[in-house]
Write a structure and sequence with these properties.
- The protein folds into 2 domains: 2-82, Glutaredoxin (3-Layer(aba) Sandwich), CATH 3.40.30; 89-192, Up-down Bundle (Glutathione S-transferase Yfyf (Class Pi), Chain A, domain 2).
- The chain has a 4-stranded mixed sheet, covered by helices on one side.
- With 202 residues, the chain is of the alpha+beta class.
- α1 links the parallel β1 and β2 (26-31).
- It has 8 helices and 4 strands; from the N terminus they run βαβαββαααααα.
Length: 202
């Protein structure tokens, strides 16, 4: 059975959500951020040297990185219900969005989030670059969701789980204002029963 090491207020919610969608049994170990520093506790570093979540452990396998963990869990699902058929057009769209979530989108969103945590006087060179990247990414997403109900075609998939969590971060810092397709999509994802169960753990 998979053991999930979950850190509150982290992207490890993806892993819990995926497992809940698949009705796959798992053991949950909760780790809490320090209330003052917001850093992960020593208990998580004892599991993985990066001291980041998510981390899963199953037998002799220990994995970090939510994208890699998602692939591992999908490989265990013999019904293959949350990943399009290999070599289909939807499969490659699925791959694109899974990587986009942690590649193109996550970097500017997280950078913007960190920028908001510090006092800043006027515009700095990085502001313009990050703003441009965020606008480009979110406009692309808004357009895509205007043509498709889900990111990898007509069916919900693990790509939606990957994308939703990054879009949540964007929404939490006010980046989704005026993006009606994205807001409607996010509300629909957050209403799923499996998402609600995963979100209970912070």
């Amino acid at each position: 059975m998979i053991t999930v090491h979950h850190l509150n207020q982290s992207r490890s919610k993806r892993v819990l959500w995926l497992l809940e969608e698949l009705n796959m049994p798992y053991e949950l170990v909760l780790h809490q951020r320090d209330a003052k520093t917001h850093l992960a506790p020593a208990s998580l570093k004892a599991i993985h040297p990066l001291s980041k979540a998510p981390v899963i452990v199953e037998g002799n396998i220990t994995l970090c990185e939510s994208g890699a963990i998602t692939e591992y869990i999908l490989d265990q699902d013999k019904q293959n219900v949350l990943r399009p058929l290999l070599n289909s057009a939807e499969y490659y769209s699925f791959l694109q969005w899974c990587h986009f979530a942690e590649g193109s989108l996550a970097l500017p969103v997280i950078t913007k989030m960190f920028m908001k945590m510090e006092e800043r006087q006027g515009g700095l060179p990085m502001d313009g670059y990050i703003g441009k990247e965020i606008e480009l990414d979110l406009a692309y997403i808004e357009s895509a969701l205007g043509h498709s109900e889900f990111f990898a075609g007509s069916a919900f998939s693990a790509a939606d789980i990957m994308m939703t969590i990054t879009l949540e971060m964007a929404g939490n810092i006010g980046l989704l204002a005026g993006r009606e397709n994205t807001q409607a999509y996010l509300a629909k994802m957050q209403a799923r029963d499996a998402y609600i169960k995963a979100a209970m753990h912070g």
